[in-house]
Queue: 2 jobs
Job 1
Amino acid sequence: EVQLLESGGGLVQPGGSLRLSCAVSGFTFSSFAMTWVRQAPGKGLEWLSAISSSGDKTNYADSVKGRFTVSRDNSKNTMYMQMNSLRAEDTAVYYCAKDLGYSFGQPYYYMDVWGKGTKVTVSS
Amino acid sequence: EIVLTQSPATLSLSPGERATLSCRASQSVSSYLAWYQQKPGQAPRLLIYDASNRATGIPARFSGRGSGTDFTLTISSLEPEDFAVYYCQHRINWPRTFGGGTKVEI
């Protein structure tokens, strides 16, 4: 069974940092791109970042570019999101998600399996 | 950044009725659009990818169509478990974006 488990969320002061982890099992992690998505309380989904299967390609939403960094360790079956300079508007549930697969040799960057999410609260 | 506009914001229907949800893109996304379903307290679930392909395990009552800037998700006959929020998402360029969602309520 494919499983994704986020961790590392919590309460942090504005300007602080957190590192989220996404540990996966049940599939060949190194073969799939991965994505982070967040959802602020009572709001819709916000796409944040994606990373290729090898980790050599990353992309970000403008709202987090320069503050958040996505990475992965394929030997540990884990993806990370380093979040710096956190703001109140970063308060959300953060989901990691597995890519659907490949289309004509390129990742879809659609998300077919999701974790349950980890909550991040930025507040003084 | 491509803006996806979903309409209506809320759709009030009864079980057995047909639901038609719209997603309009601010510029062409070709057929590179997906639909997700999210129930309260749960992670989203992929329903449709590349406009019209059902994801694994998705019932045939869910169908998608469209290309360019206008897309539709249709639920042919609503089951009680279909009452949820639905989001569209494109993959034509970076950054990917989601629409604001349509809530299908009883």
Job 2
Amino acid sequence: DADVTQTPRNRITKTGKRIMLECSQTKGHDRMYWYRQDPGLGLRLIYYSFDVKDINKGEISDGYSVSRQAQAKFSLSLESAIPNQTALYFCATSVLTGEGYEQYFGPGTRLTVT
Amino acid sequence: DQQVKQNSPSLSVQEGRISILNCDYTNSMFDYFLWYKKYPAEGPTFLISISSIKDKNEDGRFTVFLNKSAKHLSLHIVPSQPGDSAVYFCAASARGKLVFGAGTILRVKS
């Protein structure tokens, strides 16, 4: 079983619709993250949470919101989807190791906004 | 303003030879540097990392070198194998947050 799971894996939605992407983890990590990947731009941080009561904006949080329902669950919402939010979205968890915070990624959600 | 840059979008190497992927950064406050590998339709997977107080870390075929004065790090893969063909992301960490480069596509030809 995968340690970090994301649902749905693919989604096509229309402009203006509200959509939620869900992430669950079985690794027991406190820290969770949402990223988006666009061609030529790498992964950019949308929101992150260091524990259930801690939510922080990343570099590109406009147009997104998150909810940390439990240690294991971190969901990302697009309140009113727009076409430039078409991207690949990744959830990740992290843990401190001897060489820094190692992050573990889910398989990604491909979102298309038409 | 990109804090982490991978200036080579792609690299092609013959099987058995060395692959060298490069990364530059601008923020002196980064405390760890990491490399991730990504196959199509999968999430990135951790490959190797290095603390800012070190200049080299090795794990099997993979070695990461850090030159703090030049704000440059590189990933060496020796020998390269066809299964190494993937997108490689360089990332830098500050207080548990990662900043990623744009990625380099590595193709290892057999």
